[in-house]
Amino acid sequence: MNNTTLQLKIKQRLNKLASQDYDNLECWQIIEAFNKGQLQWVRRQIMGINQLQEAAEQSTIKIGDLQKLLTEVDLTLTPDGVYEESQELPAYFLHHNRIEASLKKDCCPESASMYVYLAEEANVPALLENDLTTPNFQWGETFGTYAGNRFRIYTDGEFTIHEAKLMYYRSPNKIQITGCVDPYTLQESTTEVECEFKDDIAEILVDEAAKILAGDIESINQYQIQAGSVNSNT
What we know:
Blueprint: H1 3-13, H2 27-47, H3 60-66, E1 70-75, E2 78-80, E3 83-85, E4 93-105, E5 108-118, H4 124-129, E6 141-147, E7 150-154, E8 160-170, H5 199-216, H6 220-232
Parallel strand pairs: 5-6
Antiparallel strand pairs: 1-8, 2-3, 3-7, 4-5, 4-8, 6-7
Helix pairs in contact: 1-5, 2-5, 5-6
């Protein structure tokens, strides 16, 4: 959906297509509301707090809706005692999906694949002390945590990580409108950045943005209508 259509649809939902009153919307307001709305929508789909309570990959619909945001990055790991720590995570990192890793040990020249499950940082001491959860070379299983915007894969000194890849959900691209002051950078946009989602999702995001703007201008009727539309389509 191009930005011209997007703006027209949002104004139409708010009954502002031909309005000359104080509720006229600046383009930066539309940009801010749409970008905020799409981030909120994405988080609801990933966390499973949408109407159907479905998380990111619990249905083929959710898999299809969010696959555009799945991104893979190679992790550069540095040994640090009982774990190996990655570089800082990408700026657009939003949510963990999975880790692929391979390990090495002096006794075995070939690297072996390893399952890395996500754990809570607070539980690390207990996980390292439990024979069923501590990093295990023979089982090819260990755990990892997030701390300080980095990912840690625990080895307990039993092996080294040969290579690792992180699959994650990134934040959606922010739309930009040429000639409009970007509310995030306070600079005039020189490029046009359109919504990256397919049109059926863009329609939901238009309702999401209209709902936010209706709340901002205290338009209760429009807010309730758009909120109902958003809830019935997520």
